[in-house]
Amino acid sequence: MPFHPYIYINPEDASQEGRPERDAVELFKSLGKIVMKAKFGTSLPLRVLWASSHALGLNSERISLVMNDNLERLDRGLVFNSSKVRIKLVREE
Fold first, then answer.
1. Helices (H), 1-93
2. What is the pTM of this model?
3. For 11, which of 21, 24, 40, 82 could close a Cys bridge (C-beta 3.0–4.6 Å)?
4. Mean of the pLDDT values across residues 66-85?
């Protein structure tokens, strides 16, 4: 089953950052980067992004490139669901 290259973003965050829906955005951090299409997620809190942990980027890169593999302090479980990234609009050449 293919996983779509979408990152969900709160519409208010998107409008403040000039990121219209369905534009390509780059998620990046020191671990790596991935390019995905932005979609609005109206149920997301401000400053929260969401994607399936199995999502692939537009160039078939895995979302795990920007996910931490640290352990949670409380129960020592993996913190895949709490990875802090930066995001920028990908400009078409």
1. 11-16
2. 0.73
3. 40
4. 66
